[in-house]
Amino acid sequence: MPNPGKANTAASSSRPAEENHESENTPLLSSSAATPRYDGENDGGPSPSSSPRAEVSSIKASDTKGTRWPSIIAMALLAFLSITAIAVAFFVPAAVEEYAKQAVVIEPTNLSLESLTSDGVRARIQANFRLDGSRVRNEHVRRVGRATTWIVRALGTEETKVNVTLPEYDNILLGTAVVPPLVISIVEGQTTAIDFVAELTPGDTDGIRMIANEWLEGRLDVLRLQGKTDIQLKSGLLPLGTHTVSESLTFEADKIPDMPQYNITRLRFRETPLPGDDYKDGMGADVSLVAFNKYPVSLDIPKLGFEVLLPGCSLDDDNILIATAFTESLAVRPQSNVTAEVHGLIRELPESLTKVCPNSKSSPLDMLLKQYMGGEEATVFVRGAKWPLDDTPGWVADILSSVTLPIPFPGRSFDSLIRNFSLTDVHFTMPDPFADPDDPDANPKVSGNILVLAGLPSELNFDINVTNVRATADVFYKSRELGKLNLRHWQKAKSTKLDATADQEAMLKIQSRIKDAPLNVTDADVLTDVIQELLFGGKGVLLDIKAHVDVKVQTVLGQLILKDVPAEGKIPVKPLPRKSLGSLSPKIGNISIIDTTASSIELTALVNITNPTPYSAYVPYFGIHLLSNGTLVGQATVKNMNLIPGNNTNLVVRALWNPSWGGDLGVEVGRDLISGYLSGFNTSVTVRTHRLSIPALPDLGEALSRLNLTIAAPRLSLPGHDEGEKAHFIRDATFHILSSTAQFTLVSPFTHNVLYIDHVNATAFYNHTDPVGRIEYEYPIACPPGASQTPKLPVDWSIGEGGYEKLRKALGGTLKLDANATVGVRLGAWTETVWYVGKGIGASVRL
């Protein structure tokens, strides 16, 4: 029998071992084979499988299957989680960030400023947000980003404050924006419409002014903005923490928004009472501007006040304040035209604006008007007024008053402003022969009445009174320049406003009298053509004139000078009457001999002529050559001669008779000319200018020499000569039959000199062919001034001829006789033998 104590001891000693074994190897869920049964079988004895060997085998089998796969799975899972954690911690955020940067698409649809507040702007921002994975270049980043955003689905933000600074300008705070909470979908392909109102507060005013001025002056090549904020993110109810976001945005020069292009659709100046002054008016200006807003921006701008400035004499000078202005309330809408109404007021013209600049002949106002009236683009400067209007927040006025904006002001061409420019009642003054070539007196001068008709632009709705004018004008004939007319001195003027009619706009009639304006002849050949056309063309000449006119204008602001106003017009030059050279009707009287030589006579004479033209002239000096049959026989000069239309009397002419200039032929031609003239024939002389005709303008005299003007030799005014009768040097004759002598009454054209007849060889005829008698006399006969009688000259009668019989029958009466003679004449040192043919000489017949 077994010992119970030992059995118990063994049992006790073996139980802990079994218990230990169970604690180490028994699975958490035991199998059914190891579970005790409650049906009574094997109730007190061990099962076969519970033998020691069986247990050992069971333990080994259990170790082989339970310790290998769980460990591998656990290790693999641990490795996967570790790698995933590393990827999520390092790669995924970087990939998602890169994905977000490249895939995000924000399309602004509208930006409207709902109101201006005392601190800033309340702006409503509308945009579309979406992610577009196709914009991501890296394929792996694209996949990770798409997966991550698909999982997250949406992100939300709390209220966020964004600060915008300028890193390159010591991080100047440009402005601050407070953005309300937002929720956006980040699933690719889904679009979130963003619509929120943000509070925008401007930052450093000095910084804003500095950036604005650099932009306006064209010195802003690159602008980098940096936005920085702490943003709190959440996905649904799951908070994702606070993240600091800092982004930079760089604008290149060509990407910075520029000033919008605008058109001035209306510009009107008017007189207006000055505020606070019932006795003084100023100049008001109303301007309408139209510009196109190409940005998706909408805002309502309240009335704003501005100051208008003009540039000074140089870039270093301060701009000159000239006017104040304000704009009406302005509604700006996206992608549409914006019309701005501006009203300005000019109280007076500052002295610095009208004062002539150093080393110049123009003032700042002159330079502005020259650009504007020449059609060029002028520049005015506009800055905000320091006196804000009631509707303008103070911070807006502070910013605007610190920024000066250059505004291109398109000019207007005034080429057609002056519609007519004419010159009437013209008076010419010939050049001064003793003036230097560069002296204005060395040019011909023109006086006359200027008549100008100028159109009044519709934008000038105020009274204008023209007080003075001056001009420089180019004169053309058939598109060729004749010369330059220089009205360098101010000429008094008066103006009359002509009201607009149904067919014509309002005009300004300007009248002025110019006196002695130099006409610088630039092309003598053109002047020659003009004179030739006037003399021989039988019709008038139309000269074209292109002028630049300076006008002194009296306005409500005082006196203004408009310089270089372009003007074009016509100067009609009336033709000389037909046969005008013949209608000059020159008559010579009071001939006085100044000097004589053996071959020349220098004399002065008083000439009466008729000026058939409507023009008057003053001639300080003018010289011409006298020709007969193309041979030079003398010259004539005039000095200080005034010519008026109509009759001109007692004009002093100085002449030099010297046919020897033409050689032997000239002497012969000169003798025939004098002989024919003394005989009463229809003689003529050719007058021609020469290089010294106008000493100050030798080229003009030479050019005019191409014109050969042939005129009838002027008639002599002889004492006792009746107007209309042919003048005869032999007034009458008395024939004495018994003494065979003849005595003649001679009339001398000279008033102070004695003419001598040294010898006479003459034959008298009746009826042109029948000889009466012959006279040969070799003794000098004196012919003093006026009428005188010769001594009784011996006559050799032609007895038996029909002429003598007629003479004898006329005894006690008179008879008309003709005479042919060769006469030697002497005047001082000058001598000449001339022939004489007299017809119809009244002869008295006595015993």
Q: Name the helicity range.
A: 10-25%
Q: Please state the CA-atom Rg, rounded to the nearest Å.
A: 60 Å
By CATH, the architecture of the largest domain is named Distorted Sandwich
Shape: rod-shaped
- Fold-level CATH name of the largest domain: Coagulation Factor XIII, Chain A, domain 1
- Can you identify the CATH class of the largest domain? Mainly Beta
Main sheet attributes: strand count, strand direction, barrel closure: 15 strands, mixed
Task: Tell me the span between the first and last alpha carbons.
Answer: 240 Å
Based on secondary structure, the structural category is: alpha+beta
What is the mean predicted local confidence, pLDDT? 77
Q: Report the β-strand fraction as a percent range.
A: over 45%
Ranges with pLDDT <50 over ≥5 residues? 1-69, 77-91
Number of contiguous helices? 12
Number of individual domains? 5
InterPro entries: Ig_Tag1-like_4th, Ig_Tag1-like_5th, Tag1, Tag1_C
Domain Tag1-like fifth Ig-like: 723-835
Transmembrane segments: 72-92
Biased composition (Polar residues): 25-34
Structure description:
There is one protein chain. The chain is of the alpha+beta class. The chain has five domains: 85-255, Coagulation Factor XIII, Chain A, domain 1 (Distorted Sandwich); 262-409, Immunoglobulin-like (Sandwich); 423-572, no CATH class; 582-716, no CATH class; 730-846, Immunoglobulin-like. It has twelve helices and 44 strands. The strands form four sheets. The chain has a 15-stranded mixed beta sheet that branches. Helix 3 packs across helix 4 and helix 9 runs parallel beside helix 11 (698-704).
